[in-house]
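2 proteins. here.
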Amino acid sequence: MFVKGYGPAGLEKESFHIHMYPEGDAKISDSIRFRDYLRGHPEAAREYGALKEELALKYGNDREAYTEGKGEFVRYILKFARC
């Protein structure tokens, strides 16, 4: 993963994350399924947005805790998106 937009104090104005996986890695299709599910289900997208805001306030610059905090929601959505 490549990240831009973070300084010594954490997030600057905006950040960019580029995720790269080896060809054929299951994370590629899961990422696309997750994205597409949220695009097709606005209520789930709002829930995800609210969760991300809550986690950002709770964990501040602790990127790992923030990401871990999203895990259960992402796994839940992927159960539906994989069908």
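next one coming up
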Amino acid sequence: MDISDFIAAAREKGWLITIDRPVDPELELAAAAYALDGRPALFTDIIGHPGWRVLSGLASARRHFALGLGCAPDQLLFRLADAFARPQPAPMVGEAPCQEVTHRPGNLDDLPILKHLPADAGRYITAGVLITRDPETGLNASYHRLLQLDAHRFAARLVENRGTHSAWMKTKDNLPVAIAIGLPPHILLAASMSPAPGVFEMDIAQALAPTPLTRCLTNELPVPAQAQLVLEGRLTHQLTAEGPFVDLTETSDIVRQQPIIEIDAISHRREPIYHALLPGQLEHKLLMGMPKEPNIYAAVQQVADVKNVHITPGGASWLHAVVQIVKHAPDDGRKAIEAAFRGHGSLKHVTIVDEDIDIFDSDDVEWAIATRVQAGRDVMILRDRPASSLDPSARHIPGQKSRSDKAGVDATIPWDDANGPTHPERFRRIAFPEIDLADYLTK
């Protein structure tokens, strides 16, 4: 399912919003997309960019990914975990839709790149998957926000010691790059995952759904043939100011000196669709958090009977998680807390619940905390741990890993001893009998 297929399916289901009036990519389009956050929105008339359409909200709900993968939303974690554990080689093809129209070097001003907020440093690409080849570990695909500097250059935000940054640091000369935009949901998910060095994210995508690749026009890198737009270029060792920019936590990120990408070629489909991902909103949060759920699941699975994991949007889909377990011993909750932090190093707060709690319902999780937790017994505080640079309350020292205190809450039914709770019924909801409302509402 490529983006066009998704749009058709979303339209059939009544999810799609189509905006046919002229919309300016300078601030206006982002504001309209924000008002529609959670719904896929197709903008068909982009001021200054004839022939282009812009899609927002592609990845703004779990049901969108479930549609793309042909599964129920609560099964997404298990599909991702299986693909992560069993990647498959993505096939190479010759002719590809992403290269129907080519420009060398092309002009970035021709693309409907958005400026999202008045305080942003400029126009930013936010849904670009950047592909590189590490001289030691091989191919890597990951997201990087890209600040347009002029008609042929970007400033790229590289997170220190991650895949692209490591490859760049190992390369004395320019590092060839390809930036794919307008990707199917399964590729967006795979590119968000963090496999071991040497595992290419497109092979994880292939394990989720067919993911043909094609070779770039100006270098040897493979790119998804289903992309709407591909930018080819070189990651240089020239640095420039990047930022400010509103990031995942909806707070403004700082200005840093970051490397410049020079663009050598642009290719796209004949009727291209540009994917505009709103920073800090539902698409950003789901693509950051959901692919980390299998990591937490796998870590907790080693110490407890885990049923499901939810990295929550209220925690910026990065800093908070709820883990559902079946309790077999008094300390299973504590063990699950410790394992969850091992599974996702950026996690700040985690809550462990029993299988009767709906982890996707924040009210249900809060009810478990309210009725099953005693702070002195069930809250675990971890001091001064490595943390996420996205957390504005963490301790940030330039050139060092951010650090934060962390907390785990065991909101499972407390056990009196190894045999379980003495009165478990005290901790369970009492349900009213079910009735047929039709018997009462008909006249």
